[in-house]
Fold:
Amino acid sequence: MTAESATIVISSAGRRLYLIEWFRAAFDTLGLNGRIIVAENDASSAAASSGDETRLLPKYTEPGYGDEVLRLVDEVEPRLFLSANDYELMQLHVNTGLADSLRDRGVFVPGVSAAWQRGCADKLRMAQLLESIGVQTPRTVRGSDLDDLLMRAESNDEFIVKHRFGSRSSGLAAATASQVVEAVANSAKSVPSRVDRTDSRDDVIVQHRAPGSEYGVDIVSSLLEEGSLSGVFARRKLRMRAGETDKAVTVDPGPFREASGKIARAAELSGLIDVDMFLDDAGLVSVIDINPRFGGGYPFVHLAGADVPLYYMGQIFGIPVDEGWNRYEPGVISAKYQETRVTARGTQEDSESSNAVEQTQNT
Structure:
């Protein structure tokens, strides 16, 4: 292996500059003269100027996106293509088959099977997939199909209402049995339009509120042997902001291992996924959501000692990595804070246009 071959692409990193920094640190630890190419559709995004090289791609919704991705990969020959954006992942794994095309070129593309990728984007389908493999999840129905749910409900039951295809808690509301119909109607007002939908309530889901406390859990599988379980990292959520964990404390991952193993095998997982779980006083685990990528909660376990970027680089470049990569210290509390960096210089109109693009790309 030559130093020039140690190239990776990180796409749609948005505000997650720490990912770029931690992959760069992994190169340093392994003694590689690595190169990190950041792919964005906005030259003034926070991530665009933080890699070793920046490449602009069309938005993943544009017709030329796939051709440009393949052109980039053929030119720079990366060993890893990593996206931090849910919608781009749908393009890669489901809508275009690009992930398989990249793998045929020798590129590692972490993720889940196409069936589970669809489930990650559709919370109703996700509940059905989890039930099919024996993983506990709250009963989930469409907002237009409440009759049976409410017929069985007790007056003190609590429900969660949210967008079926949403992210970052879009359309989220908590409601009692007497409030849930109104909550669904309000949530339905803000669902994105869809040509094949006749009732906007079909794109809202209602779940029983899961018992216990909420945790973020990273499930990690080998990049070389999909479906295996090589790491489980957990943190209890202490504070949320804009749908993302803002403060958390690391905890023992033991209670979450069984569900994590079932998900890894069924989803044909390679790499890391971010999963929202609840744990009640009796030790019962319920899964409510899966993000098939590095999520906003990974920094809490990385700062406590875990190192998934190092694990990735060791596997990809054939360098043994100490098992310490998947160990971390429980009881470490971390909180996010805000930083600002200059990303471009131009007119106010240019800046406003770039900001609008970045908000769309990285929600």
Notes: The longest strand covers residues 231-241. The radius of gyration is 21 Å.
